[in-house]
Amino acid sequence: MVSFFILIVIALEWLFSYIYNSPGILYIAVIIAVAQSLIGYYAGDSIVLATSGAQQIQKKDQPELWRIVENLAITSGLPMPKVFIINDPAPNAFATGRDPKHASIAVTTGLLSILEKRELEGVIAHEMSHVGNYDIRLMTIVAILVGVVAIISDLFLRARFFGVGRRDERESGGQIQLILLIVSIAAAILAPLIATIVQLAISRKREFLADADGALLTRFPDGLASALEKISKFHRPLEHASSATAHLYIDNPLEEKEGDKGEEEPGLLSKIFATHPPIKERIKILRGKG
Predict the structure, then answer these.
(1) Quick check: is 127 catalytic?
(2) What's the pTM?
(3) Where do the structural domains in the chain lie, given as residue ranges?
(4) pLDDT tens-digit series, residues 96-140
(5) Which of 121-144 are b and which e, b meaning 16 or more Cβ less than 10 Å from the residue's Cβ?
(6) Of 13, 127, 207, 255, which one is the catalytic site residue?
(7) Tally of CB atoms within 10 A around 76
(8) Residues 6+ apart with CB under 8 A from 239
(9) How far apart are CA 276 and CA 141, in angstroms?
């Protein structure tokens, strides 16, 4: 899927630079893409933690949480990640960082208040699995690629609007040029949408994998299943979450559940654009009923 992303980026850059007969557009797109990639890769976790309102803690601040993270880090053979608390009543958690040596785990005060120890262990094991599976790096790269596709498409549409550097129709034939123009406009509109769909599909797959590996880590899958049940019953969205970071959390932080309506089977369109697989499905799999 990442290779597919890269192919999309290369194809868009070639198509748009050909249409406008101007390598300048390509150079601008590459410079912006490289800059965004470097910032996202090396500072993305700091930006996510800052925008989420997370505050780093030490062992004396939350001894039980710290011990759970420490024990699971030892069990999984991973370095001890930094631990953060988000002051928010909505129960949720996420992991971020570019690799296990630079990983951070953040949990909300709401999560700490409603979960028992075995349930909290299940959630932390899920997040540690994201770290161990390098999902934190993968999702950072995917998010950067989605951003690059959006930037290239936006540059093309803006250049088209202002009439920058259009290729002379006589140069390659009016009909061919018209076809390429229609294809390029369609690509500029559809590429960001397709890129987002691929990003969300990757996110959902990695959530299933983290559930499975987290259950193996604790040897108690019902702990995570029970935690997910409690999380799903909380109706308020997370205050500082955004669509750019929603895929990082253990459950969609933007979703405002409405009692029993949240238990209805989601439609096909909802599934395609969902950041996470349905919690009911995740619980069934963890309990061996899926």
Answers:
(1) yes
(2) 0.83
(3) 2-286
(4) 998 999 999 999 999 999 999 999 999 999 999 999 999 988 887
(5) bbbbbbbbbbbbebbbbbbbbbbb
(6) 127
(7) 18
(8) 53, 88, 90
(9) 18
